[in-house]
Design goal:
The protein is mainly alpha-helical and about 100 residues long. Helices cover about 55% and strands about 5% of the residues. The longest helix has 25 residues.
């Protein structure tokens, strides 16, 4: 059964950082932009997950996954985070009229 937390609102809200980052990356290849987004998402997930885990409030636990780091992030999710970052970038371009 899944679970969540009110902490997820500010954590997901960190996606707003993609907007200013994407403006600086417009001339970079998509693979590089996706890698940067993936690293940023991993960083946010690791920092917030570490804080929540320390206070026994982390709603996710990846410790049973093969490619996990401290049960907080899954490295095999990198392609998904790359695609998510690029998708947000496209949504932002559409909303900006570009």
């Amino acid at each position: 059964m899944g679970q969540t937390s009110l902490w997820m609102f500010p954590i997901y809200g960190m996606a707003a950082v993609i907007a200013p980052v994407s403006r600086h990356l417009t001339n970079c290849p998509a693979l590089l932009r996706g890698a940067i987004y993936s690293i940023g998402i991993f960083t946010g997930e690791y920092v917030s997950g570490s804080f929540l885990k320390k206070h026994k409030m982390c709603p996710w636990d990846y410790s049973k996954a093969k490619a996990n780091i401290n049960g907080i992030i899954r490295l095999d999710y990198a392609p998904l985070w790359m695609c998510a970052g690029l998708a947000f970038e496209k949504i932002l371009m559409i909303s900006d009229g570009g």
